[in-house]
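REQUEST ID: PR-0412
SUBMITTED BY: lab tech R.K.
PRIORITY: routine
TASK: structure prediction, single protein chain
INPUT:
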Amino acid sequence: MKQGVLILAGMLLMASAVPASAQDTYATRALYNPGPYTHLNVRCVLCNFESGLRNGNDGVVESILSHVLWLRLVRPDVNLDRLQDEITGLITDGRTPSIRYRASLAAMVLESPALFAGMTDKSYSTANELFASVSATAEQTLLGYNQ
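STATUS: complete
OUTPUT:
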């Protein structure tokens, strides 16, 4: 099998894992294990991410949004224009409010990665933590809060 297919399969498998502490709640989220994306077949991964953003499973779409966001932060050299169009569409046409909100946060990072550059110094145990950090960073930066 091709390496890219295996990477996507692994990501989807990770997205289906639920932390033991969250198994008894209705608001379960996938474990988030971002990688450095240093050895990457960019063309293949972008195709897989684009396909994932069109997936009928809301959890897969949310997971792909977090991975696209992380990819932009750790690899600003990668051209993500194809994904930008998909994500912009999800801002208004996403099936759930969560997808629409996450897509708007991801679009901010794609458009202005320099505003979020310090985020790669932190570790995030879940995608929710990553998106919360993006939201807090956007609020502090764009509204001018100095704490």
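NOTES: Residues 3-143 form one domain.
REVIEWED BY: pending
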